[in-house]
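== Sequence entry ==
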Amino acid sequence: MSTISEQEIIDYVEAMPAFPKSVNKVIHLTSDMDSSVKEIVTVIESDPVMTVKILKVINSAFYNLQTKVSSIQRALVIIGINTIKNLAISVAIIGILKPYRTKYFDTDLFLEHSLATAFICKSLAERQGVSSMHSSDYFIAGLLHDFGKIVFAERFSELFNLALEKSYQTETDLNILEKEYLGMSHAQVGYMLAIKWELPVDLAKAIEGHHQLPTDLLGHCLFAANQIAKQSKIGASGNPIINPLPIESIELFGATAEDLIEELGGIPAIKATVQHLIGV
């Protein structure tokens, strides 16, 4: 049924906005063991908008620090280089979103869902013993897991809307119908975007496989976070189907989705965190 080629999607992904130069420099510097903290601080502080937004998030209730952080250098000491890198990526990602609203897909609701998934994914990772420094990778995976839908909405909206409509009318997983109407799923496109933005390959693979049975901790956290966010009705992903947690995930977490929601403080608490993140 698809009237577009895989190459058209690839070409559009390649034409998507790159991260600002400052963000790309941060990614490269934080990946280089020989880079100094001073170099990273200098790059971030050369971008006043990124600096203000990063400090705002760090000083928000999301991190719940005891004392206010007033400099990037101090932030690096407290929360680590990897977390700073991922905050820079988050600022860039949210800045790429353009307003888009149809009956079945709204970028404002999409952002709420993405941030909810990101927060829950990070929280589940820390629950399983992942350090706060490395759990920021889980946050990015949650934030980006559905970003392939943005490519479809911006470039192939007519076919994407047909897939969305049929998904709601027939209660069929959107991931399946995207392949039928567009020849590729948002998960596959999300992998392409993550590679384009030079994110770690394991993170890109988690995004690509977030509708499949999880095989590692990142996969389990991302799958569970996505379903919990949908079950909690925080924002909207465009996919009406909520999948139950696989028995492997329940055994790993030692808890059901409902148990995990309660541990996170309940739906109102999760919603409040998401709204706070949108506000910063």
Remarks:
- Residues 6-17+99-279 form a domain with the Hypothetical protein af1432 fold (CATH 1.10.3210.10).
- The two ends are 42 Å apart (CA to CA).
- The chain has a mean pLDDT of 91.
